[in-house]
Amino acid sequence: MEVSLLITITFLAGYAAHLLHLPPLIGFLSAGFILHYAGFSEMELVNSAADLGVTLLLFTVGLKLDIRSLFKKEVIGTASLHMLGSLVFFSLCLMAFRFAELPLTSGLEQHSIYLLAFALGFSSTVFAVKALEDKSEMNALYGRVAIGILIIQDIFAVVFLAASTGKLPTLYAPLLLFLWPLRPLFYRLLDRVGHGELQIVLGFFLALVVGAQLFELVGIKSDIGALVMGMLLASHSGANYMAKALFSFKEIMLVAFFLSIGLSYPPSWDAFGIALILCALLFVKNTAYMLLLMFFRLRSRTAFLGAASLGNFSEFGLIVSAIAVKLGWLPGEWMAALAMAVSISFMISAPIHKNADKVYQWLLPVLRRMQRKRLNIEDQPIELGQMQVVILGMGRIGEGAYDLMQQHYPDLVIGIDTDLDKIERQINQGRAVIQGDATDSDFWEKLHPSSELKLVLLAMPHHHGNEYALKQLKKGNFNAKIAAICQFADEAKKLRRLGADEVFNLYNEAGAGFAEHVYNELLSSEKSPQGDKQAGENVRFRA
Hints:
single chain, six-stranded parallel beta sheet, two-stranded parallel ribbon, 8 strands, 67% helix
């Protein structure tokens, strides 16, 4: 009965948030508070699922992460300077609150203030990844920068946890370096398990056993082990498919994570008041993110959207605070205040992130003046010159289309793809290919097409990518014919309705082509009257 009631309240709260055009995760947080007031306390099942959800989340983040992105100055520089600035800013604010004798602050010791300020400096990995996935902008430049900043922050949290609890890595920790030469073994496993249930089980094994448990055994936080394991596999072509296979499991377990927050820390009016005051300070936190990203030469739009993804408080802040409470460094009532601050910050961030483009357009005159003249190389305009044919997606279909179009439009064809390794291979084979992500709104903001453009081929492997690109092409009034690939009849209808001039159904056309090839090669001379006649003529000719 308890489980039935928990599921019912969770669904109703999540659905209510959906009806209000808010992310369901806000409803799940509310469900946790409701369940607490209904007499539920911490549940071992929910807490275990919550831990698994966060671990799987970091594993799937690692699967999509290019480790080189962490060492870019806009990532490590912004993360470090923002954490330092947040520590100073929130410490001063909390000292002012203590001086004003606000609830929960009057008895705070100085070291407790510093701990709280440190916890408030984090932004939520769970929220950012969910919000970016919902908008299909994980690969957008601002999304990649935001995730990189969050991972650097998570590393800060791990260092704190290791130092504060006295749990230093064991002498066996350096053995983890042998995971790197074992990558070919993991790659071979990924190649051989296929795309069914065995792939899902392999994902759990790599995330929870090889990653999380192995790191835990040598005294390093298990979540970091899952993240590192994902990063080791990120360059494999099957990593993206594994992330998709684990998607539903990760989603349901993250529901438990948000429930656990509400169940664990009962709110009070004093905690609610402090939480509101802390959330009012988010404006300063967001502005600092945006200014730092622009300082590192990102466009004003990239900086604004990145800040919108990071403008909240974090579950890692709660973890840091929970350790501090256990060690007696922080009063226990602050856990409820921080839990409510995290929840309210999600409610504030969700509509801002969802409507970030509209808000940016409203602020555009001011933000453009703040943008630096010399921009980061990844954020500069994409110039297509005099190219007449553009191919979005340079997989096998894109390659074939490129080679054929090159015969008709020599040196006037250009391919665009997101995969740097694929791009390098294409360039070595003599094709003109540049990096760009047509599912990223930034790409269309930066794209400067040629006035001579005649044809755009949408050859990306996923329908939603081709559909999104088609909408952007129509919105931008590109004066060119548009052709797209699809796999199903309903997709073809939708693409034509959106304005595609030609649609190529891969399954239909491949099936027809396959049958025609087989018929011509194997059956034409045996079955058709024409074939029989031709066969007779061949016999007479030989005779």
